[in-house]
Design goal:
19 strands, 6-stranded antiparallel beta barrel, 5-stranded parallel sheet, alpha+beta, about 30% strand, 9 helices
């Protein structure tokens, strides 16, 4: 953690009840920083108890930690913001046959969005337990950078942040590996040292994702068809329960089967058989609406020089000439990334060229693009059908 970044700054810490944010609290206090802690409530209201949220246990953990370190804890209710923004995005995406990422939008719209509107705007920095790093370049720009833990790295979940959100973001454990975080928690006898990591969408707890979708979209029977033979293999309960690249949960014999296409209007799933069928892979695909985190390939209007004709000239792009010829990228939250290039198609669209086959490329997923060393994150765009 760069103490110069937090020196004489007001810090808000988003405390979840999990071990990662608990170690963040320990690290901050150990460095002489006394943050104000906040628990963001995005789970169910009292009349939605069937969602089986873990908020009560989270609050017990968070309260005990704040009492131990002598810092304040406040609950900030972002429940309605979550349902109005993140859930709407999720359901609109799956209804249209796309594969959404609610956690990406939760970071942009809730943790660094709604929270900032409600309380975070009073603080200079917002600290979280994300596994990501930041660095400041020679021109004072702040970049999102990967964590040394390839399994836990969460830059893909942060790649849709706005630049002002990234400037306020503080990731005190981003330079650590998960085992180091656990070791600190056990050494310091933190109350949640052995608590398991949460899985799935932000707040769903024990609720199955399909139950979450069913609550809003219901069920609608449709055919599952072998794309190579045209044979109807079985039925499904709605294309929105399935995603491109899916192998499990199809209920088909003689597999494995891979979902490779959807007909949204006719509610049809197309599948192909095999462990690594070519139809389930791509080497090229298009992304749209690319969101740049820190800088874009366009010349910077700041730091202008003056040309010989007296007309101000824009400063060169910080990405450098030919940046797209050598990039790395990932299309899902895994330790694996791909080497390739980004071909500029204009209007925020890029054709991604991978050095090897990419499995399960699905419209709606975010493709997150990094520099050639898989270090600095440039941003992300949504995979689209082309």
């Amino acid at each position: 953690m760069n103490m110069e970044e937090v020196k004489n700054k007001r810090v808000a810490l988003l405390l979840s009840g999990g071990v990662d944010s608990a170690v963040v609290l320990h690290e901050l206090v150990s460095q002489g920083v006394r943050p104000d802690c906040f628990y963001i409530k995005i789970g169910p209201t009292d009349d939605e108890g069937e969602w089986d949220c873990s908020m009560e246990e989270d609050m017990e953990m968070a309260t005990a930690l704040c009492r131990r370190y002598g810092v304040t804890l406040e609950v900030v209710d972002c429940h309605r913001d979550y349902w109005d923004e993140v859930t709407r995005y999720t359901m609109e995406s799956v209804r249209a046959g796309r594969t959404p990422n609610p956690d990406v939008m939760c970071n942009r719209m809730i943790k660094f969005g709604a929270f900032d509107r409600k309380r975070g705007h009073e603080y200079d920095l917002i600290a979280t337990g994300h596994y990501a790093q930041t660095e400041i370049d020679e021109d004072g720009r702040k970049w999102l950078c990967t964590s040394p833990d390839p399994v836990k790295d969460q830059t893909d979940f942060l790649a849709q942040l706005y630049d002002w959100q990234l400037r306020k973001a503080l990731f005190p454990i981003g330079h650590m590996r998960k085992e180091e975080v656990r070791a600190i928690a056990e050494r310091e006898h933190l109350v949640n040292a052995k608590r398991k990591d949460s899985q799935g969408i932000c707040f769903l707890g024990k609720l199955n994702y399909n139950d979450y979708v069913r609550r809003y979209l219901g069920e609608k029977e449709g055919d599952v068809i072998d794309i190579e033979t045209g044979k109807v293999l079985g039925k499904h309960k709605g294309h929105w329960f399935h995603t491109i690249g899916q192998r499990k949960g199809l209920g088909l014999g003689g597999g494995p089967w891979n979902v490779v296409k959807k007909d949204v209007e006719k509610n049809i799933l197309y599948v192909v058989r095999g462990y690594e069928p070519i139809k389930a892979h791509k080497k090229e695909f298009v992304i749209k609406d690319f969101h740049w985190l820190t800088a874009s390939p366009q010349p910077s209007p700041k730091g202008e020089g003056v040309a010989s004709d007296g007309i101000p000239s824009a400063a060169p792009s910080p990405l450098g000439e030919g940046w797209g010829e050598a990039v790395t990228f990932k299309v899902r939250h895994t330790p694996d990334y791909f080497i390739g290039k980004a071909e500029d198609l204009g209007d925020g669209r890029y054709r991604m060229h991978a050095d090897r086959w990419v499995q399960g490329v699905a419209p709606g997923q975010f493709c997150v693009v990094y520099d050639k060393d898989f270090h600095r994150c440039y941003g992300s765009g949504e995979i689209t059908v082309e």
